[in-house]
Each structure stands twice: as structure tokens, then as C-alpha cells.
Write a structure and sequence with these properties.
This is NAD(P)-dependent oxidoreductase. InterPro entries: DPD_II, FAD/NAD-bd_sf, FAD/NAD-binding_dom, GltD-like, Helical_ferredxn. Keywords: 4Fe-4S, Iron, Iron-sulfur, Metal-binding, Oxidoreductase. Pfam families: Fer4_20 (PF14691), Pyr_redox_2 (PF07992). The chain is of the alpha/beta class. The protein has three domains: 128 residues, Alpha-helical ferredoxin (Fumarate Reductase Iron-sulfur Protein, Chain B, domain 2, Orthogonal Bundle); 169 residues, FAD/NAD(P)-binding domain, CATH 3.50.50.60; 156 residues, FAD/NAD(P)-binding domain (3-Layer(bba) Sandwich), CATH 3.50.50.60. It contains 20 helices and 16 strands. The strands form four sheets. The protein has a five-stranded parallel sheet with strand order 3-2-1-4-16, sandwiched between helices. A five-stranded parallel sheet has the order 6-14-7-8-9. The longest helix has 28 residues. It starts with 16 loop residues before the first helix and ends with a helix.
């Protein structure tokens, strides 16, 4: 260990930008055994591992880095998977620069962070290839039944932990495939869908039932599920797109509609709005409005669809962009143009489609309530950016779940997210819990995984206590 003084930081080989513009394959090649061991050995084995505190899952990062450096990969996988239900997925899509790698002591010392995410992916991909990933170890049947609304990261993680405890688990999801945004919101060049499918298959083989194409509010009410199960988890995520506030002569396309269409095309499906051109960027001048990871997914998808040009419009500067700095770099390499400190004033066009985005230059003023400098319009800076396709990637909000689920007693916050008791994640409805983005607002996959596992523990405690109470009466 401690090789950071004489071994430079290195990531797995990245495909050439011109090459990766042509397809949706993942952009990083796999770490070789020697390279992965060498990078793992750069870890300083801190007495107080800040990388671990920077990880929402509190992964035992120094431990599995040491094991990987010593070539003890099966043990490294056991250590990695002990705290995470999806380590190879987190290794691919977590913004490590803002989490574990950003907190790395080696990074702070100026030697360049340990490439934690790439090693995490390497360890688990190796485990899958070698057959070390065991089936879910179901506990003895405890006679308890749990229903989960939503098959995204939070729902899938909770389902696994509840099955391990011996519960009967049914997962309900409105989509035709399990995985939530992992399947339909994240492009293949960041997360190959086969990686998600094998996780779902492992849960199916454990006896977890998936009711897909099932929409709570249409096919059943929340009360129906609480009658059917001993406990219910709401893990729907947030899917309602924030809308542009500027006038629009032609409509902007919601980011999730655009990404879902592209991912469905990747599955070989026919998508009418893609074939008709509405959700297809080929040969178009594309403008994406927004600065988060969803915006980065949109601009990089448009490049691969053969857009004539791709511009990202963001109202703050590069330093204040909420998306991953690594994703911005990838996008720039692939030819995306960033208009920093620029915000839309109007979308020009007609029923046939947009022709341009009229924008203003912005400047950063005094910090707002959130501590971030508030953007202000720079007078006399209006300009137009030609556009044939405008995509709005301004983030997501919660749907009106009390109305949608037919349960007005379900309490929500001012933002529309489900209100829970902090420690237990129980909602205002007894026996109904909530986890992930529907509680936090749009957040990271890794937080959804953490919340799902925490919620499963709370559900087990509550169901066991209820059964004990009934038995005592």
C-alpha cells in the first residue's frame, strides 16, 4: 500500500471521443488485473477514512482496496457487497468526485484521488464473471408480507433486505421493466442495461414477485395494498418534470421523455415519437436547458443520435454547475458546447417546432437562502441560439401522491415529497413507509440504495412489533 507517492492516478482506458460518439456502449474499458491492483495500492489506509464518511453507504472502502491490491478479489467482493446491494452500479454512476473520491486524503494532499469507483466496478464485475455473486440468501419464512411501490434503486434494495429476512415481497411498478431510472433515465453509455437486468433477475430468483405495468391509483389504491400486505413502502421516485417559465412559441421536450425514448430504442422497441422526429436529435441543432446530470445525459445522447450541433444552456458558471464535473468533461470531449451564465428568455418557433432559443447573459449576485449566488440578468445581453430541438432538463418534482393514491391522509411536504418520521421513515399512514427520491426530492442513486435498506429495517421492526402486539391481546 501507500504507493501514491510513486504511482500516478489512472482510470481505466477511455474510448476515443470520436469513436464513442458513434454508439451507446459504455465509454470506459475494463481495468486490467495489474492496473486495478496498482491503483488500489495507492490507498494510504487512513486511520480515519474520510472516503468512507463521504459515502452514503459507509462502504468499507480502505478494506476492499487493500484486498484488491493483494489480489484477494473474492474477499474484496464480499467486503464491498456487505454494505451495498448494487456496488457495480454505484461504481459506474456515482459522482465519486463529489463523494468518496472527493473526500480522499490522497486527493487533499495533491497526489490525485484513489480511483475508488473504477476499482469498485472492477471488483464486482469480476465477481459476476467468476460466479462469486451468490443468490439472495432468503431467511426462513417469517409469515410477513411487504409491498413495495416502485422498482427503482430504493425499492429494489428494500426488496432484497426484506427477502433476506424471510418476508414475502411484491414489487409494483408502472413501467414494463424493473429498474426505474436505472433502466429508462440513464443512458447505456453510463450504465449498460444488462448490468441492471442481472440484478433484477437475482431478485426474481429469490422469489420476489414483480407486478410490472401496475400503477397504484389506476390498478389499485394505496388502501388496497395496505389491506393486502403487513407493511408497504413507497419508493416511486420523482417523475414530474419542472417546466420552463419562459414564453414558448414551440414546446420544449421534457428530458425524461427524451431519454426514455432513446433507451427504449436501445431495447429494440419501436417508438413513434422517435420515428416521427419529435424525440430524435438526428441532424438537428439541439439546445438542452439545465445543468445537472440529467442535462449531461441529454446532451451526450443527442451527440450519439447524430445531432448537427449540441448546446447546453446553464444560468450559472462552471464552478456552480450541479452535475458531475467528470460528465461535463466527457460532454466537452464529445463536442458539446456549453453556454455558461446564460438563461432562456423565450423559445422561438411555431407548431412545426422551435427555430431558436432567445437567451440572456447572466451574472452571479449575492448568495440566496441556500448559500449559492443567485443569477441575475445582465442587461442588454439578449441573443439567439438556433435550435430545432429544445430539451428541458430542469429537474423533477413529486407527483400529487395523496390524490393519485386515493389516500388524503398521506402527508406531504410543501415540495410535495412524502413526509416521514426521520429515524423510521414511516409516513403519516401507519405501516406505510417511504424512501428515496420521493422523500429527499431528486437525489443520487446511492442515497436511494441507502434509504431502501434503512426502510427495510424499519418495516421489519414495525411488522414484528405489530404481530407481537396482536399475539398479546
Amino acid at each position: 500500500m501507500l504507493k501514491f507517492t510513486d504511482t500516478h492516478q489512472a482510470y481505466p482506458p477511455k474510448r476515443d471521443a470520436e469513436d464513442r460518439r458513434r454508439d451507446f456502449a459504455e465509454i470506459y474499458k475494463a481495468f486490467g488485473d495489474k492496473a486495478a491492483a496498482l491503483q488500489s495500492a495507492r490507498c494510504s489506509q487512513c486511520g480515519i477514512p474520510f472516503c468512507q464518511s463521504g459515502c452514503p453507504l459507509q462502504n468499507n472502502i480502505p478494506d476492499w482496496l487493500k484486498l484488491a491490491a493483494e489480489g484477494r478479489l473474492e474477499e474484496a467482493y464480499a467486503e464491498s457487497s456487505a454494505t451495498s446491494t448494487m456496488p457495480e452500479i454505484c461504481g459506474r454512476i456515482c459522482p465519486q468526485d463529489r463523494l468518496c473520491e472527493g473526500a480522499c486524503v490522497i486527493e487533499q494532499s495533491g497526489h490525485g484521488t484513489v480511483t475508488i469507483g473504477a476499482v469498485e466496478q472492477y471488483i464486482t464485475d469480476t465477481a459476476w464473471g467468476e460466479g462469486w455473486v451468490e443468490p439472495v440468501r432468503r431467511g426462513p419464512d417469517n409469515g410477513l408480507s411487504a409491498g413495495i411501490i416502485g422498482a427503482g434503486p430504493a425499492g429494489l434494495s428494500a426488496a432484497e433486505k426484506l427477502a433476506e429476512a424471510g418476508c414475502s415481497v411484491t414489487v409494483y411498478d408502472r413501467y414494463d421493466r424493473a429498474g426505474g431510472l436505472l433502466v429508462y433515465g440513464i443512458p447505456n453509455f453510463k450504465l449498460d442495461k444488462a448490468v441492471v437486468a442481472r440484478r433484477v433477475k437475482r431478485l426474481e430468483e429469490a422469489g420476489i414477485e414483480f407486478r410490472l405495468g401496475f400503477e397504484v391509483g389506476r390498478d389499485a389504491q394505496l388502501a388496497d395494498l395496505t389491506d393486502r400486505h403487513d407493511s408497504v413502502l413507497i419508493a416511486t421516485g420523482v417523475y414530474k418534470a419542472r417546466e420552463l417559465s419562459c414564453p414558448a412559441g414551440a414546446p420544449a421536450v421534457p428530458a425524461l421523455d427524451y431519454l426514455t425514448a432513446s433507451n427504449r430504442m436501445g431495447f429494440g422497441e419501436a417508438v413513434a415519437d422517435f420515428d416521427g422526429g419529435r424525440l430524435n436529435a438526428a441532424a438537428k441543432r439541439v439546445v438542452v436547458i439545465g445543468g445537472g446530470d440529467t442535462a449531461m445525459d441529454c446532451v451526450r445522447t443527442a451527440v450519439r443520435q447524430g445531432a448537427k450541433s449540441v448546446t447546453c444552456l446553464y444560468r450559472r458558471d462552471r464552478a456552480n454547475m450541479p452535475g458531475s464535473a467528470r460528465e461535463v468533461k466527457h460532454a466537452e470531449e464529445e463536442g458539446v458546447v456549453f453556454e455558461w451564465l446564460a438563461a432562456p428568455d423565450a423559445i422561438m418557433g411555431n407548431a412545426q417546432g422551435p427555430t431558436a432559443v432567445r437567451a440572456h447573459r447572466m451574472r452571479l449576485g449575492l448568495p440566496g437562502p441556500d448559500g449559492r449566488q443567485a443569477p441575475e440578468i445582465h442587461p442588454g445581453s439578449a441573443h439567439e441560439i438556433p435550435a430545432d430541438l429544445v430539451i428541458a432538463a430542469l429537474g423533477f418534482e413529486a407527483e400529487d401522491l395523496p390524490t393519485l393514491f386515493g389516500h388524503p391522509d398521506l402527508t406531504v411536504t410543501r415540495r410535495g415529497t412524502v413526509k416521514v418520521d426521520g429515524p423510521s421513515l414511516m409516513t403519516s399512514v401507519p405501516g406505510v413507509f417511504a424512501a428515496g427520491d420521493i422523500v429527499r426530492g431528486a437525489s443520487l442513486v446511492v442515497w436511494g440504495i441507502r434509504d431502501g435498506m434503512d426502510a427495510a429495517g424499519s418495516m421489519l421492526k414495525w411488522m414484528s412489533a405489530q404481530r407481537a402486539r396482536v399475539a398479546a391481546e
